[in-house]
Design goal:
- Two copies of one chain form a homodimer.
- Chain A is mainly alpha-helical.
- Chain A contains six helices and two strands.
- In chain A, a hairpin with a 7-residue loop joins strand 1 and strand 2.
- In chain A, helix 2 crosses helix 4, helix 2 crosses helix 5 and helix 3 packs across helix 4.
- The interface between A and B is large, with 52 and 47 residues.
- Chain A binds a DNA duplex through helix 4.
DNA sequence: TATTGTTATACTCTATAACTATA
DNA sequence: TATAGTTATAGAGTATAACAATA
């Protein structure tokens, strides 16, 4: 805005970056500790949650979304299918393709896992004021923007 | 504290927790991609950074800190030692113990990685307004508070 | 006997290469 | 010939069990 704020802003940028980097790693580490009891692996959960939230996908779509190879995703999908959380159906228009969908049980597992993983953080956030929660909500949005660059 | 406000607050709390948790993991994952040495794994870097920042540790201390078993940490330490980034020295007072320290080269690798991650994040934050940077700065402070619970 | 570090071995996750079926 | 999915096999990383040295 004004010249008086432009120089501090440049200094703040470097400090803000360093602070945000350290805070992000520390919170990620703490959150990882709290979910150590989970039965499903991170990769399996990410796939199941994507299917529940964004609807059915093909194998290649899931592999690209999660940045893994098709054989690796195929193994993850096999595990989820063996557990009854995911089902394969043939694509009528292109018979090379297989449509992957979360089953009712799979959707329930996603909800339950999200609830459990959120529980600790919700407890921690309960001490904060509505204004502080709003700050965190806006920051989360900005962080997602940064991460998707 | 009326029923009219308590219910919306509880809903916001759950959503804020979920958004913050996902944003934190995504940003941490993106930041971890910025490294000084491609051959070093995330686990190896975390150990080396801990030794550089918090000083020498024993094997058991490192294993507990990183939430892995002693044999697993021993393997990580062996890799870092083979690369010349970490050194073992005997503990004079208790000869069962081995003191693990980052070498000069190891400290330099940590510094370079931190520098790269900060530079990348600064570039990403450059698009934001002073108000948005202030939001991120306050959020970083709150996140640190949560992580230290 | 308990603790610290280490080795032996197995399991999980991911990757590359090769194969089958379909477009 | 190219694409979608799958199987075969190998390389990291982590785990449990067993062992050696020291307290």
């Amino acid at each position: 805005m004004t010249p008086a704020t432009s120089t501090p802003t440049r200094i703040d940028l470097s400090a803000a970056a360093s602070d945000l980097r350290m805070a992000t790693f520390r919170l990620a580490r703490r959150l990882r500790q709290e979910r150590a009891v989970d039965t499903m692996s991170d990769g399996q959960f990410a796939v199941l949650a994507a299917l529940k939230i964004n609807g059915p996908h093909t194998l290649t779509e899931l592999a690209e979304r999660e940045n893994v190879t098709a054989p690796s995703m195929n193994r993850t999908v096999n595990c989820l299918e063996d557990s009854g959380w995911l089902s394969r159906t043939a694509d009528a228009s292109d018979r090379r393709k297989v449509i992957l969908s979360a089953t009712d049980a799979g959707r329930a597992v996603v909800d339950e896992t999200v609830r459990r993983r959120n529980a600790w953080l919700e407890g921690a956030l309960a001490d904060f004021s509505p204004r502080q929660l709003a700050v965190l909500a806006e920051a989360a949005d900005l962080m997602r923007t940064v991460a998707d660059r």
